[in-house]
Amino acid sequence: MDAAVTYLIRSRSNRGRVEATSPGARFAACFVALLAAHQLADYWAQTNYQAANKGRHGSPHDNAEGRVACMAHVATYTAVSGATVTGANCLLGLGANWRGVVAGQLISFATHYFADRRFPLRALAARTGKLEFHDAGEGLAKGSAVLDQSWHLGWLAVCALASATIGATRASR
C-alpha cells in the first residue's frame, strides 16, 4: 500500500490526528515550536522600550527600570512560547503532559530573564574567558548578541526535553 494512503488511514482512525508517542518525536516537535516562538517573541513581540531598557542596572532607579522592562519582555515571550508549544501539542497530538509544558516554560522564563538582564551574561562570559568576544563587534554582530542567542538556543533544547518527557506516561516515553 502506498505510504500516503497508509498515513491517511492511520490518521483517520484517530479522528484525523497522528499520535507522536515517541519521546524523540515529541522532543523534536517541541524544539521546533520553541524555536519558532523564540524568533517571534524575541524580535517581533518585544517592544523597543523593553529592548532598550531590560539590561539597565546600576542605580536603584536603573535597576527597577531594567527589571520591569525585562519582566514585561519575558512575560510576553513566555505567553507566545507557551501558546505555541501548547498549540503544537494539541494540533499535532504530541501527547506532552501539561506538567512538562509548564516545567519547560518555567525553565525558559528563568533562563531568558537571566540572559536578558545582560549584566549576568556578561559576568558569565568573563568567568568563562569569553569577555573579549562578548564585548567585540557592534549591533546584532556584537559578541554579546551571539552569546545571548546561543544561551537561549541551548536552554530551548532543555525546555523541549522537559516539555516532551516530564509527566509523560510510560507508554508514551
Describe this structure as you would to a colleague.
This protein has helices at residues 3-12, 23-45, 48-53, 60-92, 98-116, 119-127, 131-135, 143-165. With 173 residues, it is mainly α. The longest helix has 33 residues, at 60-92. The radius of gyration is 19 Å and the shape is elongated. The two termini are 29 Å apart. Mean pLDDT is 89; it is low at 1-13.
Please sum up the structure shown.
By secondary structure, this protein is an all-alpha fold. The chain has helices at residues 3-12, 23-45, 48-53, 60-92, 98-116, 119-127, 131-135, 143-165. It is elongated, with a radius of gyration of 19 Å.
Question: Would you list the SSEs in sequence order as H and E?
Answer: HHHHHHHH
Ranges where pLDDT stays below 50 over 5 or more residues in a row are 1-13
E-strand count: 0
CA gyration radius, whole angstroms:
19 Å
Structural class: mainly alpha
Count of helical stretches: 8
Helix content: over 70%
Shape: elongated
